[in-house]
UniProtKB/TrEMBL annotation:
One of its GO terms (molecular function) is molybdate ion transmembrane transporter activity. This is Molybdenum transport system permease. It holds the Pfam family BPD_transp_1. The chain crosses the membrane at residues 20-41, 61-87, 99-120, 132-161, 190-210, 245-264. It comes from Actinophytocola algeriensis.
């Protein structure tokens, strides 16, 4: 009994956070939570339903979800192979390549939008040829929204998948190779199931980042209702003319993001007890 009591006391002591850490931790928590709670406190609850089901909100929400989902699909198709190359490829200058991939994480989104314009605009390095040869113009279109969102969101997927690949046990892949499996079959039947939690985590982060993208989108795709006006852009416009509507739009984005993150995290990413 004495040993058990001593063990419980030691466990309680280990679980106690030192005051020098507890105070900054609580301040940090308040710093993150209080502004979000402020949206709920200042929400125009009396007109919430009317604004929530208005045509403008529905149009912006549908466009945001569709564009974010398409951007995430683009990131999956391109980002998973890129993550595999960074994690398993034997290339010179791989560290430089990894740094270039992560640049959009720290690059101001507006700068990313300008860069996309200079490359894919009608007079851009690649865009002028797309326009001249195929009649394709990407800026200020819905496709431009998808490209802008994919540009800023892909690093989140690549980093998550690369980390999962580095943590996966390569012996299973080696065993599959010795049994005669091709590289593609090994990747599809062995590697991909092993890194599935990392892929899901990266996909969720990528989708959430794409959903909230603003700077690159407004710079590269503009702001045309029903065409390029996503929810973040609608919030920005409403804040100048109707702050109540801006709060409602912000709450929709907040609830949508939190719902997706929490539901997928509980199902796929939670660590076992």
């Amino acid at each position: 009994m004495t040993t058990r009591s001593a063990g419980r006391r030691r466990a309680r002591r280990r679980g106690r956070l030192p005051l020098v850490l507890a105070v900054p931790a609580l301040i940090g928590l308040a710093f993150l939570v209080v502004p979000l709670a402020g949206l709920l406190v200042r929400a125009p609850w009396s007109t919430l339903a009317d604004q929530l089901f208005s045509e403008e909100v529905g149009q912006a929400l549908l466009l945001s979800v569709v564009c974010a989902s398409l951007a995430t699909l683009v990131c999956l198709v391109l980002g998973v192979p890129l993550a595999w190359l960074l994690a398993r490829g034997d290339l010179p200058g791989r560290g430089v390549l990894r740094a270039l991939v992560t640049v959009p994480l720290v690059l101001p989104p507006v700068v990313g939008g300008v860069a996309l314009l200079l490359v894919l605009g009608r007079r851009g390095i690649i865009g002028q040829h797309l326009d001249a040869w195929f009649g394709i113009s990407l800026p200020f279109t819905t496709a431009g929204v998808v490209i802008a969102e994919a540009f800023v969101a892909m690093p989140f997927l690549v980093i998550a998948v690369e980390g999962a690949l580095r943590g996966a046990d390569p012996r299973y892949e080696e065993a599959a190779a010795t049994l005669g499996a091709s590289r593609w079959l090994t990747f599809r039947r062995v590697t991909l199931p092993a890194i599935a939690p990392g892929v899901v985590a990266g996909t969720v982060l990528c989708w959430a980042r794409a959903l909230g993208e603003f700077g690159a989108t407004i710079t590269f795709a503009g702001n045309f209702p029903g065409k390029t006006t996503t929810m973040p852009l609608a919030v920005y416009l409403a804040l100048e003319t109707d702050p109540g509507a801006a709060i409602v739009l912000s709450i929709v984005l907040l609830l949508l993001s939190v719902t997706v993150l929490v539901s997928l995290r509980d199902r796929w990413i939670s660590s076992p007890a």
